Amino acid sequence: MAGCMGDTDRTLACRNSEAAAHLKFISIFIIFFTSVIGISLPVVLARFFQGKPSYDKAILIIKCFAAGVILSTSLVHVLPDAYEALSDCQVATKHPWKDFPFSGLVTLIGALLALFVDITASDHVEHSHGGGGGHMSPDKEIYSLIRAHDETVVPAKKGVELGRSIELGEHNIVIRDRIEELAKLKQKLVSQVLEIGIIFHSVIIGVTMGMSQNQCTIRPLVAALAFHQIFEGMGLGGCIAQAGFSIGTVAYMCFMFSVTTPMGIVLGMIVFSVTGYDDSSPHALIMEGLLGSLSSGILIYMGLVDLIALDFFHNKLMSSQAWLKKASFIALILGSTSMSILALWA
Q: What gap in Å lies between CA 328 and CA 322, rounded to an integer?
């Protein structure tokens, strides 16, 4: 309890509603601007490389950097913050929060929820593009088509009969086009679920800052969150760039990411002005902890399963070129390291 009193004394010394409001108005514009830069950069780079021989390789490396950012965001930023909120002495001294590790449980629920959404959406794609019963899921169909392509390439190269070679060549083109179509559908699904998890996280950050009246906390957060949004935006933008969305959809997804944290700040300021609801109250800490744990679980699943595992174990381009696999792993490490270093400030 003494620790709680000490924390309260330090917080009261930094509380200044007028100074905090001024910092929050500045942060709205800074965070919006840096978010636009972060999410637009990989999209613009993808457009620049499109049609060039290095396009697929550049997109893959950008995506691996993005996967590192997403994984680091979930494990180094979101989950520790959620755990800290639920471990606060105002919460952890009461039932049922002191009796059970709720941050871990809700993280698990978030991961299972992401898996459920992944399965459900894949089934929807299967029925809408395959006509229903008896068809494989998009992932299984991709892998089976790759195997079929590998099996037909060998006789086609032997050229035993010209007619047979032409037939196999046309078959391989059909298989390749189908693989590309299914991969695009899968990547679109990944990008959409990923944006949901990131938006959860961004809303929590924004609302928490908006409700805070502690200028000592807000001041360093403004600069740290600016870099945070750049790297997180690059993570999401890298996935969007590979999904092949229309220009309108890309613009909409980029806009939603860019405005979510600023809108969260505005919402937090409104909530505080109307209700006086403090970000350090037990109810606010519980809500922050639960939502943070949920978004962490979603991001962990998406980072490991739909980004890292999919590319490093099932990407034919990466498997065929050792240097590309090494470059992709380095990009993964750089993305993870860049986002992890920001945990020193935010």
A: 10
